[in-house]
Design goal:
- By secondary structure, the chain is mostly helical.
- Helix content is 60%, strand content 0%.
- It is built from five helices and no strands.
């Protein structure tokens, strides 16, 4: 989301510095997981997928209780088509074979 905001023509700060971003690990198991999530997005929609993953994967019991709702509100403002295209591009990146 930070990169999307920085790329907007009207961005107040057209630069983004990501601190500790999630790595894009390209092991076969991660690739399968990304593909399953992509399929889930197609079947139940991006917002529902975000809810499901948020409940099961993204948050810890030690996180503030309002954090999942805050993240969902922010995600809901993201352009649906752009988010889906971005996810499709992430899944399309194949691991390098060694």
């Amino acid at each position: 989301m930070a990169l999307e905001l920085a790329a907007r023509p009207d961005a107040a700060h057209p630069l983004a510095i990501l601190i500790d971003p999630a790595p894009l690990i390209r092991s076969p198991s991660v690739q399968r997981s990304l593909a399953r999530t992509q399929q889930m997005i197609r079947e139940v929609g991006r917002r529902r997928t975000q809810q499901i993953l948020g409940d099961k994967v993204f948050f810890r019991r030690t996180d503030p209780p309002e954090l999942p709702d805050d993240v969902q509100r922010i995600a809901a403002r993201t352009d649906e088509e752009a988010a889906i295209r971005t996810w499709d591009a992430i899944v399309a990146i194949r691991p390098k074979s060694h």
